[in-house]
């Protein structure tokens, strides 16, 4: 029954998110994100944008923030992915919350949870953590909106021990076979609009209820008058980023861990 459920969820996601308007990238916006392409041993590639503060030394200690865009930004231009997040993640954000930021781009016609795509995203995190000695692997954070919200849940499934904090926006955990015994220990702040016509709020409400019944400290913000496009409001939520950047695992993430497909 699991595969038909996932297929049905996939059709729901496509129908729900397919008509999201794209934001336009500002090439002069600051901070500047480097354009990079990840290539794995089999030759599969995935474009991504990378931001690291200027003048970072090997003795610095910075968290890594992984940001996952919605369905409309899929492609290979390595621009739409960044444009999705540019309005919220400007110089003042990185001044207040110094970090290394990674913004991959899901290929056209693919989904974040397709194995080659998900494996590439994980590969990017590993590669950046190795290439930038300042990355503190006790502080890996992941967030995404709409399709990226689904993807955030997917990464909590395949790499449940990596993330010091996760922030899914207007996603749905229903098609993801999450291990609630593990997830209840995960610092998690979930956002959804009560009037979301595209991704029903029910899935997040159910997950939050289950986690709280297990003693989880999960945080949940539901905007009573908002629909689907809540990312600008959610990412500006007072206290969100102070909370995220305060989260830290007791030990470094095992980036060599095999994914749990």
Question: Can you walk through the features of this model?
Answer:
The chain is an alpha/beta fold. The protein has a single domain, classed as Rossmann fold, CATH 3.40.50.1820. It has nine helices and eight strands. The protein has helices at 2-17, 80-85, 91-96, 115-131, 147-158, 180-183, 202-213, 231-235, 240-246; strands at 34-39, 45-51, 62-68, 100-104, 135-145, 165-169, 189-193, 219-223. It has a six-stranded mixed sheet with strand order 1-2-4-3-5-6. A two-stranded parallel ribbon has the order 7-8. It is globular and about 40 Å long. Residues 1-8 have low confidence and may be disordered.
Protein traits:
single chain; 261 residues; alpha/beta; Rossmann fold; 6-stranded mixed β-sheet; disordered N terminus
List the topology elements.
Elements lengths: L1 H16 L16 E6 L5 E7 L10 E7 L11 H6 L5 H6 L3 E5 L10 H17 L3 E11 L1 H12 L6 E5 L10 H4 L5 E5 L8 H12 L5 E5 L7 H5 L4 H7 L15
Parallel strand pairs: 3-4, 3-5, 5-6, 7-8
Antiparallel strand pairs: 1-2, 2-4
Strand content: 15-25%
The CATH class is identified as Alpha Beta
Number of strands: 8
Number of domains: 1
Strands in their spatial order, largest beta sheet: 1-2-4-3-5-6
Could you describe the largest sheet, including whether it forms a barrel?
6 strands, mixed
Percentage of residues assigned to helices: 25-40%
Q: Nutshell version of this structure?
A:
By secondary structure, this protein is α/β, with parallel strands linked by helices.
């Amino acid at each position: 029954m699991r595969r038909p459920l996932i297929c049905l969820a996939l059709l729901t996601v496509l129908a729900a998110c397919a008509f999201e308007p794209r934001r336009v990238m500002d090439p002069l916006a600051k901070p500047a994100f480097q354009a990079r392409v990840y290539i794995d041993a089999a030759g599969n590639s995935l474009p991504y944008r990378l931001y690291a503060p200027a003048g970072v030394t090997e003795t610095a200690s910075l968290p890594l923030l992984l940001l996952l865009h919605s369905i409309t930004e899929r492609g290979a231009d390595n621009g739409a992915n960044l444009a999705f997040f540019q309005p919220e993640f400007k110089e003042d954000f990185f001044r207040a919350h110094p970090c290394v930021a990674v913004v991959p781009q899901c290929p056209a016609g693919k989904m974040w949870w397709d194995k080659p795509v998900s494996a590439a995203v994980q590969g990017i995190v590993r590669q950046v953590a190795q290439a930038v000695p300042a990355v503190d692997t006790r502080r890996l954070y992941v967030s995404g909106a709409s399709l990226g919200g689904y993807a955030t849940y997917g990464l909590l499934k395949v790499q449940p021990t990596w993330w010091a904090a996760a922030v899914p926006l207007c996603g749905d955990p229903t098609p993801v076979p999450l291990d609630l015994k593990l997830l209840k220990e995960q610092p998690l702040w979930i956002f959804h609009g009560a009037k979301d016509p595209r991704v029903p709020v029910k899935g997040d409400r159910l997950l939050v209820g289950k986690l709280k019944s297990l003693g989880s400290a999960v945080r949940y913000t539901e905007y009573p008058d908002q629909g689907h496009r809540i990312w600008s409001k959610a990412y500006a939520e007072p206290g969100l980023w102070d909370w995220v950047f305060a989260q830290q695992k007791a030990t470094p993430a095992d980036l060599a861990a095999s994914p749990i497909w």
